[in-house]
Design brief:
Elements lengths: L17 E7 L3 H18 L2 E7 L5 H14 L6 E9 L5 H20 L3 E8 L2 H8 L6 H16 L6
Parallel strand pairs: 1-2, 1-3, 3-4
Helix pairs in contact: 1-4, 1-5
Length: about 160
């Protein structure tokens, strides 16, 4: 099987932009790596972030919706958000439910709210795969999700698409 080709374009700089990171901590070792990558990407872009922690991937959309609403009510809306988490295939159908419903809810929210959302919820077969994909020195999926959110936020601000 051919290896996927990965674009390595830098995210736009957005000094002063404010993002929300919703992080599921179910797989602690993976969560730490995903968060490290996302924080580095936001730092490189000059953006700030707040972190909300939830238990698992199914709680990410609800945590995101609640935090976005609270920020809006407080008059401090976010420029975008990142969802970080991991779902590992097991021997039951539960994997498909968690992975599919989490992704569906996040996509629905992004489209309906015009939310600059980076989805960094990994769906893998093993913990080793997850750690490899999450590690900022190799897969950097947390960083990728943050860069996706930054790119969408720049587009939302009227920035030219690349």
């Amino acid at each position: 099987m051919a290896e996927p080709q990965r674009a390595h374009a830098a995210a736009p700089r957005l000094p002063g932009a404010r993002f929300l990171i919703v992080e599921a901590r179910y797989y602690e070792s993976v969560a730490v790596l995903l968060l490290e990558g996302a924080k580095a990407a936001f730092g490189a872009a000059g953006a700030t972030y707040d972190i909300v922690r939830v238990t698992g991937a199914l709680e990410i959309p609800a945590g995101l919706a609640i935090a976005l609403e609270n920020a809006s009510v407080d008059g401090r809306p976010y420029d975008g958000a990142v969802a970080l988490g991991c779902v590992i295939r097991g021997e039951t159908y539960h994997f498909e439910i968690v992975a599919g419903e989490s992704a569906r809810a996040l996509m629905d929210m992004a489209v309906s709210r015009r939310l600059a959302l980076g989805n960094g919820v990994l769906t893998v077969d093993t913990l080793e795969q997850a750690e490899e994909r999450a590690d900022p020195s190799s897969g950097d999926k947390g960083g990728d999700a943050a860069r996706a959110a930054l790119t969408l936020a720049a587009l939302k601000r009227g920035g030219a698409p690349r």
